[in-house]
Structures are given as C-alpha cells and as structure tokens.
C-alpha cells in the first residue's frame, strides 16, 4: 500500500481568515481537505475550525462516494488530531489520520509550517534564526552579530577543534551552521526535515564558499528519534539552535545524540522554553500565554530549564550548563515590541502566519513566561 501523503492544492488568506486546501491520500483512498482558520477575540480567543470533505474512489466505501465532516477544534495544537469526522467506518478513518493521513503527525505539521513560514523568516531574519547573546544585543550589535556571538560561545564550550566532525540539528537556512564551521574549522552536517530549508542552506553555504566543509541533509520526520544515519561514538559535537522545541519526543532525541557522540564530546543547545514569572505561576496560568504560541508556531510543548536538564541527564550526559538566558527579565531578544525587525509590518505572502506568530509570542514575552535556555552537556569518557 502506498504511504499516506498530503499535497497542497491552494492557500487563500485574508487579514482575519485563511483557508488551505489539500489533497490527502492513503492507500487507494483520496480526500480533498479544506482547513479554515481564523483568529478572533485576540490571543486568548484563538480557535480553529476544520471542515473536512473527503472523496473515496468509486465503490470503495459503502453508502456513497462523498461524505462531509465538520469539527471545531476545542484545544490547540496538541489535540489537532485525531479528528472525529463523520465517516461510515470511523475506526478506519481514525487509524488513517493517526498514521499521518490528512492532518499528519506533529512532525509533519512542523515540516509544513516551515513551507509557509520559511520564506518570511528568511526575509525578516536572513540566515540566522535564533536568539542572540544578550550582552551583545544590549551592547547594540545587530541580531545576526548577536546570534553569531551566542554560537561562538557554544563552540568554545564544546571545545570543537579544526578537523572535528559535528551535527547541527535543525539547521534552518544554514547561517549558524556555516558560521560554526568557519570559526571552528570542523566539518558539519546541518539537518532539517524540510527540503526547502536544506536547499536554501546549500545555496547560502555555496555563496560563502563553505560547501567542502558543510553539507545540508533533509531527514525523515521521525529520524531524530534514532539518528540512525550516524554510527555510535562518531561525532565531536552536536548542536541545536531553537529546533528541539519542535520535537514531540525530545527524550528520544537526547538519547540518540548520546549514542552518536564520542566519549568526552559535547551536546550544546539553545532553545525556546517556558517558565513561571511574576503573577503567572501555575501550569494553567503559564499555558494561557504559551498554548497560542504552540498552536501558531507548531510547537508540541515547551520544556523548562529543569525538564531539559532532566532529559539530558537521563540520556547519560553530565550537564555542565543549563541556564535561563534571560533570568528575571522579559525575554524580547532582538524582536522588541517596537518591531525593530519589521515583523508587524511584514506584508509578504502568507503574512497572517507571521502576524499571528508575532502577536502570540509578544504576549508570552510580555507576560515573562517565555524564555530561552542554554545547555552544554558532556558525554562521560
Ligand atoms: C527555527 S528553525 C532553526 C533554525 C536554525 N537552527 C537557526 O537557528 O537559524 C527549526 C529547525 O528545526 C527543524 N526541525 C523541526 N522538527 C524537525 C524534525 N522532526 N526533524 C528534523 N528537523 C526538524 C526544522 O526543519 C528547522 O530546520
């Protein structure tokens, strides 16, 4: 049976509404799937409405060839599927959806998110897509220079040497990967689950004259759980910059990294986190700000400094640094509310995603519950 798949057909957007039409396939069954979304009542009122229309091949399904299902989603991202469409064989439908049919797995949704957001991110941030070193930002360095300063800090912490080999997990459009290779003299593989990102990264890498030292590969959505392409004890460093937050199974990723690093080598990372702050102390109080971020920016759940430390230790590492990069202050990074990078005024294609993302993230930053953490961990000899 051919694998399930979803093909985009058309996307339509207005300032308040968007509609995406997709064709889904699983085995010899096909659907046309319209996904409508709207935001109303501001951040807390985020709701999505799905309308499903699916068509099976003639004769496949008893009772006719066409059926409708309408379902309002009560909660954001985490419960996006399985939906409960109106179907004669509901168990079968649920199985199909759960296997990665119409809505796909969480990982597939993240991949699709970057099809939409990737070009806008590139336009707004250039090749560096992660927060920078706070001191550098405070000193007035550009977002790109501050991002490089943080990457340099991580390379020094990892003690990566010329001639070494490293993996940058979740390499986006490649700026940080290429930069780390250039300052360390090590060889890098940058890994993503989105081929558009990898292709942009390859082009950038070639422009920088670094193609002999850096490769960009696109992995399957769930390959991060094993990193089976890399032999045991083979790498001198693994890095991640704001990518692990997208993984629903972070613990498996950290175990896989432990396996592929050489004894004595380091995992270094920077990631989006949540925390208790000010008047927002309980899970529910924090979630009111973080859930919209998770839904809009395709993040299955934010960890904390402590939850990352625990997962990394449980994988076998000795954690050397697990710190909040914005202790006691709101985390605005290089995107202060005055919109210095132009997110609010972005009017390129699919701008709703960017405006929604900025609005929910700004709200979480202003509430203080969003932050960024830094991690350095060593695999024991
Ligand atoms: C915000 S971008 C980070 C970009 C880059 N590290 C930077 O800072 O410029 C997130 C990255 O995580 C990757 N990613 C998310 N989920 C993934 C998965 N399941 N497997 C591999 N890569 C994944 C995306 O493809 C993307 O490259």
TrEMBL record:
GO terms for biological process: methylation. The keyword Methyltransferase applies. InterPro entries: Erg6_SMT_methyltransf (IPR050447), SAM-dependent_MTases_sf (IPR029063). CDD domains: AdoMet_MTases. GO terms for molecular function: methyltransferase activity. Keywords: Methyltransferase, Transferase. This is Methyltransferase domain-containing protein. It comes from Lentzea indica.
